[in-house]
Amino acid sequence: MENFLHAPIRPIEPKTSQYGIDPKLVKTRISEMPGMVSIKLKEIFPDLPDTIFPSENNEEAIKDVYKAAVDSLRQIDMSKIKPEHTVNILASHHGFTLYGGQPYAELLKAIKDVVTEKTGCTNIRLRAGVGMRFRETEEYIKRYGLDTYFNGKAIGMAPVDEGIPIETEIGTLYGLKKVYDATWIIHAHHTDVREVHFHRQVDKAVKPFGMSYARIETRSTYHQNLGPRAANFTARAIFDSEFVQSKFAFASFLNVGPHGIIGVDSDADLYALNDRATFLGCQYYGKIMTLFGEIDECIVALDFPCPVPYVFSAGVIYGNFVSANTDLYDMETPLPAYTWYTEAFYNKHEKPMLDSIPPMNPAVKICVHNYAWLGYPSAFFSRHIPTLVVGQTQSDLFDTDPLNQDYMTYASVVKSTEAAMNFAYNASGTDKVLIFDGAMAGMNVSKSLAEFLIEKAPQVSEKVDKILLPKWLKQRGVDISILERLKLK
């Protein structure tokens, strides 16, 4: 077992943003605390494919991501795009939080370059959508030099921007006008599972058409009206509409595993790409999610430049781990507590309105909020999980956020990371620590949790391969023989 234990992996660096504290104030990372180690995911799950990024030399690996994107894109028939046309490359904010953000930026650059190379079209714009943090993609565009790369034609979009009616088979829905103000649109996305507690790995590839590219009236069907599982059909309706189909050129996705970027997949058939994305999400992320479901008790540490539920460990977000007491991929299981909360199925006393709603993951004994951003309603977490926030400045910042006015009402401020961890150990009675800090290729954890996970991994892998994966794919109508075509084994 000792052979599987490594020194902690360098976490994702804090980033300057209006949604988080000054990176200079992040004095100590949780992975620097005594007793922390790392596990490499490919060592405990040997069937995971090799990654392009990260690697031993990430500067070269980033170039390899760009090359993989170019190679994939050159296989696409772009003959309908003419030199005099306009093209909008559509991006979503979540892509910029994958493995430091640069891989997604390289995909966007490659799309622009190959379209110009193959078609002669030069009027290519970047349109990057967001959720609740309306200025977030503007920060990413500047951070990764995309404003310069796109010759000043890169903009962020918010769901409150001017809309455009789209006639669909279920009636009029609304997209963002800036998405569709070109001759052609190119859908640039990724296969990481992200909000699988919402979409349950159904139509993940199509979802941005009802979210990042949609006006708030239509986007809100996911959270305020129908709920994610029911609202999935709105994204399909928009994408399948005559208007959108008349503009859709193709899609290009980063193929993402829980351990890194494993390739780029481009296709003019979005539903074929969606099937492949579903397979990757179920097979590889399913093993991590099932392994996390085995954890019996732990301290959770948030230490990543994203809003509270979107911080990463082993490619999985905290919003998934608080639901890991259910099988998020099994369509026969009830939606987890956190999903029901966002759909207003909790009453004013914070109790589930239906007996069938599972509770929050009881394995989470306490949360140490060392570093995470505001911009997403997160008081639900501090109400249900004892939470320690490191530093008065971070606490004060959350008090300024209209989405988090009550977050600190239920959390306590602790002056330092060391003090927070000491308190957490004493109060929780466990020394198992799971760190959501975006460590690439693996995860940072305490030694005791590492030993627990290493012991559980082989049986989890076998269970997913032989029992769970066939069931998950059958529920979604995806042919398991796609494994052979993907050549991932």
Automatic annotation (TrEMBL):
It comes from the Bacteria. This is Uncharacterized protein. It comes from Youngiibacter fragilis 232.1.
